[in-house]
Amino acid sequence: MQRKPKISASRKLMLKSLMVAKAKEELEQEILDKEEEKHRYLAERAPPLNMSGLSLGQLQDLCRELHAKIDVVDEERYDIEAKVMLNTREIKDLNIKVLDLRGKFKRPNLRRVRVSADAILRSLLGSKHKVSMDLRANLKSVKKEDTEKKRPVEDSDWRKNVEAMSGMEGRKKMFDAAKGSAQ
Which of 110, 134, 140 lies closest to 121 in space, CA to CA? Predict the structure, then answer.
């Protein structure tokens, strides 16, 4: 069974249109408030200039005064911009730390790259690297003859060895062999 919606479609549409109209009115009112605040701020910070009836010296003093005010405002603007840049950089770093702590940072798939020891040394040392490093030349070599001398029993068939060592004769041979190696 499907549940019937509590609000009909026409009622929903009417409510949506009312909400959009209200939001539009509030947006227009907000724009007007910002303009009004801007005019108030400018009237407070920059009063209208009265230049009528001023001599040349007084006009020059007025210009110097205005330039000094402009310099102060530029310094304030520069300081505020520097603070904003610092804060945005700090926010970005903190966001990265938060992502790292959450563990949602996606690591890229890394490919295995084969690099020789010479290539690593060349990349680290640059043109200073002249000696080729052959790691295999320094390894100790093992001869196969030595390994064959140590294990002659393994080369023969194990069945023959079991048959030869079975019974009393085999035990005697083992006993004699152990006695001979001990002396």
Answer: 134
Cα 76 from chain centroid (whole Å)? 35
CA distances from 23 to 14, 19, 116 (A): 14, 6, 66
Q: For 94-106, what is each residue's pLDDT tens digit?
A: 988 888 887 755 6
Place of tokens 């990349």: 123
- Give the residue from 132, 138, 128 showing the smallest Cα distance to 119: 132
CA distance readout (Å), 165 to 39, 158, 169: 115, 11, 7
Angle at 90 between CA 89 and CA 95, to 5 degrees: 100
d(C-alpha 37, C-alpha 18), whole Å: 29
Cβ neighbours of residue 135 closer than 8 Å, sequence gap 6 or more:
117
What CA–CA distance (Å, rounded) separates 55 from 59? Answer: 6
Domain segments of the chain as ranges: 12-46, 56-106
105-149: per-residue pLDDT in tens? Answer: 566 777 877 777 777 777 777 766 565 656 666 666 666 665 555
Which tens digits make up the pLDDT trace of 48-90?
777 788 888 988 998 999 899 999 999 999 999 999 999 999 9
